[in-house]
Amino acid sequence: MIYFCCDERRRAAVLAHPTLNGIDFLEVMDDPSNPSLEKQKLLQVHFLKQLAPGQLIKDNFLIDGGERIRNIAIVGVTQGVSSPPSSPPVSSRQVVLLELSTAGDFSTYTLRLVRDSQHPDTPDGFDPMLASVAFSFKIACQSDFDCKPARVCPPAAQAAPDFSYLAKDYQSFLRLMFDRMSLLNQQWAERNPADVGVTLVELLAYVADYLSYKQDAIATEAYLGTARKRASVRRHVRLVDYPMHDGRNSRVWVQILVGAAVASFTLHRGSGANTTKLLTRVEGIPTIIKQGSDLFDKALAARPEAFELMQDDITLFREHNQIRFYTWGDRECCLPKGSTAATLAGSLPNLKAGSVLIFCEVRGPQTGRPQDADPSHRWAVRLTSVLPASDPAGGRFQDPPNNSSIPVTKIQWDMGDALPFPLCISARSGTEFFDDVSVALGNIVLADNGMTFTDIPQAAPIDIGGLVSSLDPDTVPDPNPALTELLPALSSRCEPRKSKTALPRYRPLLKQTFLTQAPPFDPASLPATASAAIKWSSSDPSQRPVPVISLFDPATGQRWAPRTDLLASKPEDLNFVVEVETDGTPYIRFGDGVLGAHPAPGTKLLATYRIGNATSGNIGGDRLGHVVTSDPLILNNAAIAGIRNPLPATGGVDQEDIESVRQSAPSAFRTQARAVTDADYADAAMRCGIGIQRAAATFRWTGSWRTVFVTPDLAGGRVVDSNVKSHLLDCIERFRMAGQDLEVDSPRFVSLDVAMTICVKRDYFASDVKTALLGVLSNRVLPDGRLGVFHPDNFTFGQTVFLSPLYAAVQGVAGVESVTITAFQPLGLPARDAVVAGQLDLGRLEIARMDNDPDFPERGKLTLTMLGGR
To answer: CA 82 to CA 87: how far, in whole Å?
Structure first.
């Protein structure tokens, strides 16, 4: 056979012929499970029809071919054998068993039917086309490949035309095509623009020019240094694990003033289009706005910033609108900087641990006028303890005085919310006293920037035909037949060629810009402090902002969720990625059916999303003024008397610009993400963000393995308690190497023993100078904001303590004439040479300490001997 044919009708024709016969197929006897079988030396030849007894002898068979083993002889022919189990059941007269002199090699052989050894033509009664069969002796040998022979007809190689690849614009393409046409058809020399041929050439030149532009644009986006689209830059830097961010929204603490008509009510967050909204103040608009009303549309026309509640079902009480501090009858009081406890006036049974209060200065301490109040003296705290109590002598401070007790409420808050400034509670101007210089504001709720929009109607059933989507285009198109790829036949041209239908190109945009990017927030697990609810770590992957949008398929009821990327998505996962361009337009990118699912053609997706992002949401204090709600209790009963944000909104960040990404991304992957040496563990501890001014790590053999002991030096000399240890262990765990244990221990403090002899000038009182020296040489923050010489933040691990700063600090105090340091040594360990050397060296994990506290004499001692003065 000299042809490759797919429809082999010859076999059927021979079967139907009354006299012709032919070879059907051949089997090489090579059964690995039969050890007695002489392998590959027996051939079973199956014929289409039965043979007459003695019709074929060994001279009628001839084996051609072979590369290493040739001229294989046939030594015996047996007719009438039964077919093996691997073959279809046939008559024994259709099978001939051939015994060969030797087995062949791995090449292809051909068995032919001949008249005899001298006449190679086909015997009478056999079809010439079915009188031969190609076979291989090694067909049963172990192989990783398909034994079916390839039947392909490869096309002839064609020489590519000699084109100039410098042609990149319309004119050069036009000239190139005219030159090519002149070469192929020298008779055609028409150049009239009205000619049909010239028109076609110009049309092709236009298409080529457009294609060239697209190629240049694609090449431009293919490199980080030249890409102009944010989506391209985002995908480039994702290869080096750099998360390009699209900004994030802001958060704000809001006070809801409960009206006089109700004692309390529950504020609901709502959902979808009925989400409760808080708007910045718009002139001429009342405080309460009904959802979806004309008044709401009028307010939106002024383009206010919108915020929404981050918690649901918040119960508010009128008695918490403004709460007075209780000073136990004393006057001119203040809460010092760093305070974590206070007392409130009255019984507050509805004030619970976890509630947020804002301490707010409402009067000027010097004048008592509200206009002179300092707006920076406002601070939010989350209460950790609320204890009811009473003042048994409180009635003596009433007007008129009495002997009754006064109920009070003691509150405490976390150290993370410690006051960053002194808060004046009561003051005096001349002979006039002001009791409520600062108050505590309750009914505080947390809100973040962004307004919810939804394409999904609130009422059921849903009319799919009348829905309008915020996506453009809103329907997944059908696959483009022009993009259907016909795959070539890999093994046989007779097999039907498979086609690969490309997914429809569907990358819709959101019709509104500035999609909200919000960090994750779990209302069921609130942060321990009010500060942590407003500020969060941008380096923590779990706090990375995500786009606030979801897609809904009304035909199937399925919801699609956003992801930062689709690398972890399975083919059936309904995920998508939001890619925001420089102008704030969000584009939606779906999966390819392998990494994430792709919506089916004809699918119409509806969106629920929020709009409001970046620094535009960082509004100032007291900017909020309107509540948009559909709650009848609020609309009809005036449950809300007003809203305000005593503190400014914070946290809003603009999207990262392309040039910053180009500068930062190439080296961002160099960030150390594992700890090997002790310095690595110390650096990892410094990244944990809990006020560590320095950390040290030490490897120790603890019996069966090595343990890393991390020692933090906390700012302000704070104690390494169980909370600090737990936080550090959780933070460093992701850096720890396998096979190493991790522990956190406290620093080793070296208490100092310092003695000085001070000569006081005769115009100064020695006691006053000593008081000033004790302040300068203390471990406290001085009234002017300076740190005392022995403040914990001035010392860290292994830091040498020098005498020169002590001399300088003492000589800087007014009234000191001279100073002599007589003792300078660790407490209880004499070190006479330290005074002479002028320094005291400490070990690697040792920190100098000198508290001079009589309650804790083991923490250091300062002895001042005063001479002279008055």
So the answer is: 10
At the topology level, CATH places domain 10-135 in: Immunoglobulin-like (2.60.40)
Q: What is the DSSP letter of 533?
A: H
Q: What is the DSSP letter of 482?
A: G
Q: Quickly list H helices, 57-126.
A: none
Q: For the segment 493-549, what is each residue's pLDDT rounded down to a tens digit?
A: 667 777 778 888 899 999 999 999 999 998 888 888 999 898 876 667 778 899 999
pLDDT band at 151 (very low <50, low <70, confident <90, very high): low
Give the whole-angstrom CA distance, residue 222 versus residue 217. 9
Cβ(269)–Cβ(276) under 8 Å?
A: yes
Dihedral sign (CA 3, 8, 9, 14): positive
Calculate Rg over the CA atoms of the chain. 45
From edge to edge, which strands make up the β-sheet containing 740-744? 692-701, 706-714, 740-744
**Residue percentage of the chain with pLDDT more than 90:** 55
How is residue 29 written in tokens?
Answer: 């006897």
CA distance 772 to 443: 45
* Nearest-angstrom CA–CA distance, 697 and 744: 9
- In the chain, what are the domain boundaries? 10-135, 251-315+619-644, 322-441, 458-617, 672-744, 749-868
Instruction: Calculate the CA dihedral of residues 361, 367, 370, 374 and round it to 10 degrees.
Output: -40
Closest CA to 798 of 648, 680, 694: 694
Which residues on neighbouring strands pair with residue 380, listed in sequence order?
358
Question: Are the C-beta atoms of 20 and 75 separated by less than 8 Å?
Answer: no
Specify the 3-state DSSP secondary structure of 821.
strand
- Fold of domain 672-744: Alpha-Beta Plaits (3.30.70)
Q: Cα 611 to the chain's mean position, in Å?
A: 20
Distance from C-alpha of 701 to C-alpha of 148, rounded to nearest angstrom: 64
Cis peptide before 473 (omega within 30 of 0): yes
Rounded-to-integer distance, Cα 381 and Cα 417, Å: 5
CA–CA dist 122, 60 (Å, integer):
9
DSSP for residue 126: B
Residue 715 amino acid letter: A
In contact, 445 and 309? CB cutoff 8 Å: yes
3-state secondary structure of 574: coil
CA distance 819 to 755: 10
Cα 801 to Cα 752: distance, rounded to the nearest angstrom: 10
Ranges of H-type helices in 32-119: none
3 state DSSP class of 540: coil
Phi, psi at residue 373, to the nearest 5°? -65, 140
What are the tens digits of pLDDT across the range 201-211?
999 999 999 99
Q: What is the mean pLDDT of residues 355-363?
A: 95
